[in-house]
Structure formats: C-alpha cells, structure tokens
Design a protein that fits this description.
Elements: E1 4-7, E2 23-31, H1 38-49, E3 55-62, H2 69-79, E4 83-88, H3 94-104, E5 109-112, H4 124-131, E6 137-141, H5 149-167, E7 179-182, H6 183-186, H7 199-203, E8 210-214, H8 232-248, H9 252-281, H10 286-315, H11 320-331
Parallel strand pairs: 1-4, 2-3, 2-5, 3-4, 6-8
Antiparallel strand pairs: 5-7, 6-7
C-alpha cells in the first residue's frame, strides 16, 4: 500500500487513515533529490527494523524533489504497507519536511534521520535503548564526522558552541538529524524556519530529559550536500529567536526592554552632548542631535515589538505553561 499525501507546507496536515493502536515506532526521513539513496536506505532500514519487537512505520517526506526520488519511494511503498510517502508541492526546507513527518507519525517513539546514507540505521536500536533509560530525547553525536572541514565542520563547531552558550543547553552536535523522541514531547514543540537543530533547546522549556549518544557517520555516497555557508545567517537569526523563547518566552517584553537599554544610553549621550554645545557655544550640532533622535526611535520600536510579542505569546503555541503540562502529565 502506498499512502501519498500531497500538500503545501502551509496546508493543515491531516492524519492518515489507519489503526494507530500499538504503533510503537515511527522513522521519519526528509528527502530532497536523493533518487540514488532511496533503495539502499530502505534496505538498510528494513534489515534493522525487522528485528524490532513491535509495530513500526517508515515515513519518507519528499521535499519537492526534482529528480526521481518520489517515484522511487512510491515503488517501494507499493510493495510494503509499513512505508508511507509524503509529497510536498514545492521545496520548503528540511524543517517543514521533518515537521510534517512528525505530525503524521503514529508511533509512541519517533526517530528522525537524514536520507543521504550518512546516518546509519544500525544506530536506531542504540537510540531506543538509551531512550528506555528514562530520557525524552536522545540526540545523535557525529563524533567522527565525515564531511569537509572548512565548509561543514568548522561552521558546525562554532554554531554548536554558540547555541550552547546562548540557550544553556550544551549539545555537542545540534545539526545531527539522527535523534529519538517520545512522541508526547516532540509533537508539542513547534517547528519552523531552521528550528530542527534547536529541538533540544526548545524541549528544555518542557523540562525534557535529554541525552547524547555517539553515532556513526558515513561519507556521502550519492549526490551533493544541500547545505553550505549560506545557511549561517539563518542559524544566527534562529539563535536569537530561540534565546527569546528559552529565556524570555513568558515575558518577551523584558527581553526587548533589555535590548533597548544600549540605544537609550546612546541616545541620551548624543542629546547631552548636543545640549552642552548649545549652552556653551550657542550652536546646536545637527548631526549629533539627529543621531540622538534616531537612537531614541529604536527603543520605542523595540518596546512596541515586545508588546506585540506579549500578545503573540498569549495566543500562540509556545506558551511555557502549555509545555510544562507535558512534564506534569508524565509525572502524575
């Protein structure tokens, strides 16, 4: 059976028909132009999951591939009812594809991984075993990463260090897609932009118990990497967003107020200098006074943004008390 759901990233996801009872494991794999990897990936997954003691499903999420990825995936799904294929109408990125798979997954535990054969399905049983030790999320750590040093490893090391410092969640490899989650936790965490690498930080809002596990990492066999240095600015912007959510999610106005303080100081300094010049020389420095006025506008904009964030928080999906209910429910 081949279950194919085609939609835009903005469509409301519909649950697949079928019996959700006793579905223990879902493996979610976003794909983009991986036509040569589909067959070996599926075979490697089945070799591992056939030994799994319970019901499982595999979800391939095709993120608008322009090659034969979708066709090859459907051919496999027609012969195996445990495999479902999700098709995006366009290319929206890894995070929306991963979010779609997580939303549609029916398993009590969800494992995510890349579709380029660099992650190894043999690590899935090890992730599940670690999860059974009482953790909510187990994050893969590519300790022997098989990627280019300057364009992949160095930016990743800097990003991981920065994410750990900013969010307070010191994960050594946030970019590794090979992770295992309890569905009750991951389904309540909103994912957008490039947020898939910030899942541990977002989950910390719910008091999730997080562990790391060394996993294998293989050189890319087919195609080319979909990532480059161009993604750095997106990561930096997302770090600011996550910092706001992790540290000031319930009172965003405080965070915006803190950001406004330096501009208030600069504005006051410029205006004081202008007034002193006017008093002593009888002349007003238009450039300095104008700069002071411009700096005065920035705090006003930030504070208005903070007020808007307070309204968004009140009606949005990243409310601290909502995420805290996950922990309360599990402990009760």
């Amino acid at each position: 059976m081949c279950v194919v759901l085609q939609y835009r990233a903005t469509d409301e996801l519909r649950r697949r028909p079928g019996d959700d009872r006793d579905m223990e494991l879902s493996v979610v794999i976003p794909l983009y132009n991986e036509e040569d990897s589909i067959g070996p990936l599926y075979s490697a997954l089945i070799n591992v999951l056939d030994d799994f003691d319970g019901r499982f499903e595999i979800l391939f999420v095709d993120d608008g591939s322009s090659d034969a990825t979708f066709v090859n995936a459907c051919e496999l799904a027609l012969a195996d009812p445990r495999l479902s294929v999700v098709k995006f109408r366009g290319n929206f990125g890894q995070t929306p594809a991963m979010a779609a798979g997580i939303d549609l997954a029916r398993g009590e535990v969800i494992v995510t991984m890349d579709g380029d054969l660099q992650n190894d399905p043999l690590d899935i049983p090890r992730l599940l075993a670690r999860l059974e030790e009482g953790y909510d999320i187990v994050v893969g750590w590519r300790h022997d990463r098989q990627d280019k040093f300057l364009t992949r490893k160095v930016p990743s090391m800097v990003a991981n260090w920065l994410i750990g410092k900013v969010t307070g969640v010191p994960i050594r490899d946030n970019g590794c897609s090979l992770k295992a989650y309890r569905a009750s936790v991951i389904k309540e965490i909103p994912l957008y932009s490039e947020m898939h690498r910030f899942i541990p930080a977002m989950a910390s809002l719910a008091g999730a118990r997080i562990a790391e596990l060394k996993v294998r990492h293989h050189p890319r066999r087919f195609g080319e990497s979909k990532y480059g240095l161009s993604r750095i600015y997106k990561v930096l912007l997302d770090i600011l967003v996550v910092k706001t959510l992790v540290s000031f999610s319930s009172r965003p106005l405080i965070w915006f107020g803190v950001l406004a303080i330096p501009f208030v100081v600069l504005s006051a300094s410029c205006l004081v200098v202008s007034i002193q010049g006017l008093v002593s020389d009888g002349r007003l420095s238009i450039p300095i006074a104008g700069t002071g006025v411009l700096f005065a506008v920035i705090p006003i904009v930030l504070l208005l943004g903070g007020a808007l964030a307070e309204l968004v928080y009140a009606a949005g999906d990243v409310r601290t008390h909502k995420l805290a209910e996950l922990t309360i429910e599990k402990q009760s």
